[in-house]
Amino acid sequence: xxxxxxxxxxxxxxxxxxxxxxxxxxxxxxxxxxxxxxxxxxxxxxxxxxxxxxxxxxxxxxxxxxxxxxxxxxxxxxxxxxxxxxxxxxxxxxxxxxxxxxxxxxxxxxxxxxxxxxxxxxxxxxxxx
Length: 129
Prior knowledge:
- By secondary structure, the protein is an alpha+beta fold.
- The chain has two helices and seven strands, in the order E-H-H-E-E-E-E-E-E.
- The chain has helices at 18-27, 35-43, and strands spanning 7-14, 45-51, 58-62, 77-81, 89-96, 99-107, 122-126.
- The protein has a seven-stranded antiparallel sheet with strand order 1-2-3-6-5-4-7.
- It is globular, with a radius of gyration of 14 Å.
């Protein structure tokens, strides 16, 4: 199934929201190899699109002057937030050709995310050795 119809592309890129910045900061405080490069990319990124399915995923574009991430792993780091009585929320940072491409944020059961996500009980997974 194609998800292209679920994307909303912006005519003008927008800044990351404070919430999106918080999610990215949580992902990048881990022991991720070369995380400082990705932190620099976040500082030079804009949101160019978002998903309309009820998740909170955003497509991002990084300024070309930002340093390139040297690792080839598509999803170098991910985070799961466990909320009482709800399916966990998964955060996956997608890197394409060395640059942040997407912050995917979805519930494990694909149900919509209607309210703030509780980050008090999170688990980080680093996918780079």
